[in-house]
Structure formats: C-alpha cells, structure tokens
Amino acid sequence: MSKKLAAFARSAALVTAVALIPATTASMAQVDGRAGPEFAKVLAVYQRIKASYVEPVEDDVLIRGMIDGMLAALDPHSGYLDGGDLQRLETMIDGNYSGLGLSVIMEDGAVKIISPFRGSPADKAGIKAGDYITHLDGKLIVGQSLDEAVAQMRGPEGTSIGLTIFRPGRDEPFDVTVKRGVIELEPVTWELEDGNIGHIMINEFSRDVGSDVFAAWEDLQSQASGRLNGLVLDLRSNPGGSLDEAVALSDLFLSEGRIVSQRGRVRGENIVYEAETVFRGDIAQDVPIVVLIDAGSASASEIVAGALQDHRRAVVMGDRSFGKGSVQSLLPLGRDAALKLTTARYYTPAGHSVQEGGIKPDISVPQLSDPDLAQRARFRMRESDLRGHLINEIGLEDEAMETDKREDPRFQKTAEELEEMGIEDFQLHYALETLRRTAPSSIAARRK
C-alpha cells in the first residue's frame, strides 16, 4: 500500500465514519472455497468477451466493470475507490477545494443532491436537497459517472457554471448559474440570539468538532449578559462524517449512559460507546437544549440527535432525518485503491436502529419559510428511497415512516407571510421562541 493511500486511510477513519478493518486470509479462504463454481462463470464470461466482443476490450475496463457490478449488488454506500475517487476523498479530508459545495450521490444515472453545504455557492444560489442536476453548461450529464460530473462542477474560484435543475414538485426544469468559490468548510459556526439563547450550527463532522463545539459554548457564555437561557444545536443539512466526533459531541452534553452502539458480522465491529469517555460532565448542565434536524441530517447527525433524545437531554425539532444507520470501513486494495464497505449498523441508546426510519422529532416543525415546501415534501429523499438500501432489522412498517398529514394550527402561515414578518428561517425561529418561553425569566414573569 502506498504512503499516500495509507495517509488517506488514517485520515478517513477520522472524518468519514469509516474504520480500518484488516481482511483476514482465513475469511478469504472460506469465500474462495464456497464460491469456486461461481468464479468459474465469471472467468468464462471474461474469456467470451475477450474472444468475441465486436471491439477489443482492455483488461482493466473489464476488471473494473466486474468490481462495480459486485458492489452494485450491495447497499448504495459501498464502493470502489481509485484515481479521481481517492482524489475526492483527499480534498474532503483537507476540508477545502474550489467548487460549488454540494453533497451528491448518483441515483438511476442522475446526480442527486443530498444537501448543499451551508453558506456555499450552491446554497446561496438556492439549490435544495433532493434536486437533480441534469445538465452542466447545457450538456446532458445523465448517464455519466459521478466522478465525471463532480470533476466538471469543480474549477477555479470565480469561474461560473450553468446547472439545469429538476426539482420534484415543479412542472419544468430551471437553469441557475453558480459562481465557483473556495469551499473552506467551517464545521462549527455559532451566534448569540436574543434572550441569551445560543445557536451552534454543526455543518459536518470532521476532525475536532467536539472541541470546536466546546469552544463555541465558552464563547457564547462570554458574550451573554448573564447565564445562557437555552441552546439550539443545529444539525440540519449535515450529511455526517466522523463517528468519533459524533460521540465526542454527544458526550459534551451527557454525564452518563450509552451514546451509541454498532453491530456487524465481524467481532471487532461490535462496539459500545459510553458517555464520560471523551469529555467529563455536562458542559451545559440545567440549560434546556433543542436539536434541529431535517431530511438532510444523516449518519453522525442522527447519532447525536438519537443520543440526546433517548437520554431526554434535548428536545428534537424539525423534520424526520435521512435514516442512514450504517458504518462504512475503508479496506485498502493494493497500492492505490480501496474498498469502502458497509460493515455494521448503529443503534441509539434505547436500541433503535436509525436505518430507513431515521430520527423522528419530538416536535415536528415544517420549514414554512421554504416557498417550495408543499411540492418538495411529496418527493423528499431519504435512505429508504435509495436503491439497494439496507433494510431495517425490526421490519419497520411503511406507515410508521409517513408524515402526520393532519393540519397543525401552529403551522398555517405561508412563506410570503413569514417573509413580511421578517422570519427567514421558521424552524430556527420556532426553536428560539420555544426556548425563550421556557427561560427562567419568562416563567417568573408569567407567575407574577
């Protein structure tokens, strides 16, 4: 294994919720013994293609096709990494690159957006989670590989690219021009809101997120006029990242108990993570906490939301989360390639699997300030919508994942009405107002 790939592997274990697991020769031998006749079929197909296909085919093309075919039979988070894929991993580890700032997947030959990074050029241009990109600068990209599409979207800072967007719920695609920028991902940002309420936004789970949130909390305390009356942990549109950092962040606000557990076929993948192993005590003891999530909150975000919800340390608000309850391992293959393989499921402290169903908020709060809310809600993408996704082991019924369709009298205003009121982010507004109503000074005022 090259030094470069080894560095990737070590870093990826920190920032992408993957862990290095050695493939033992014993397990490989068992596979070879059982699958011998099937490998003979693969060899026969290879020989037929080499001998009879209408045009000569290079060996590396056929081998890559076989690898991709095997992985296509698994879940959508397993994959083979080499060349440009490893380069993308390197830029993600570095935390900055020049481009649009999107988290994307390939679905049925089209590029589908999981979420735009908060504050990125794509986010400022109004691109939303669940959108499809069909054309780049007027050229159709449906059918291209994800690597090719991502390479085209990246480019020098200040240059522009035209995207044709299909947004489920709209009758026609629309065009938008986005100016590329240097994407320097800020994992944690924060601000003090009126009423001495802290608002900490966790945008991704890269290295040192736990320490960054601790620093944010201390800064908010120094800014506040008196004690902090509440805290909003904002995990919306956070696609996840490091499992270790999700544990560290949860441990900041828990003083005992389990944070998360993971279970897999390999004994080394059966791990329990407990509180008080990263940070001692609860840094915000007696301060009420709201955790905000939405359909773009995935993986590590769901670990944090699930842990604080199960321990009743926070009230979870927003929309049901994405539902990615699996852990991926990075297994080096030779000098310059690796296999990203799903090796375990993870479970909340109460033993619930996040897979498919996601985290259900304690209080469902729609994002009423989104003018496309009604249309996009019908086509919202989650883990359960991905082809080949892992099935929840408890056999969650479809109706258990359906949104409550009854109208709530609290949530009747339109995006236009909220804009006139100066409310740009209704979910955040509702969370802040809830904390203000429960602040000690507010309770004392009501008792007079």
Characterization of the model:
The chain is an alpha+beta fold. The chain has two domains: 97-184, Pdz3 Domain (Roll), CATH 2.30.42; 188-447, 2-enoyl-CoA Hydratase, Chain A, domain 1 (Alpha-Beta Complex). Helix content is 33%, strand content 23%. The protein is built from 13 helices and 20 strands. Strands 1, 2, 14, 15, 18 and 19 form a six-stranded mixed β-sheet that branches. Strands 4, 5, 6, 7, 8 and 9 form a six-stranded antiparallel β-sheet that branches. Helix 1 (3-15) crosses helix 4, helix 7 packs parallel to helix 8 (243-252) and helix 8 runs parallel beside helix 9. The chain is globular and about 80 Å long. Residues 1-29, 396-406 and 443-448 have low confidence and may be disordered.
Mean pLDDT equals 81
Shape: globular
Q: How many domains?
A: 2
What fraction strand?
15-25%
**Biggest β-sheet: count, sense, barrel?**
6 strands, mixed
Structural class: alpha+beta
Radius of gyration: 23 Å
By DSSP, the count of extended strands is 20
Kindly report the name of the CATH homologous superfamily of the largest domain: 2-enoyl-CoA Hydratase, Chain A, domain 1
Q: In percent, how helical is the residue content?
A: 25-40%
Low-confidence stretches: 1-29, 396-406, 443-448
End-to-end Cα distance: 71 Å
CATH class bucket of the largest domain: Alpha Beta
Look up the CATH topology of the largest domain: 2-enoyl-CoA Hydratase, Chain A, domain 1
* Count of separate DSSP helical elements: 13
Q: Quickly give the CATH architecture of the largest domain.
A: Alpha-Beta Complex
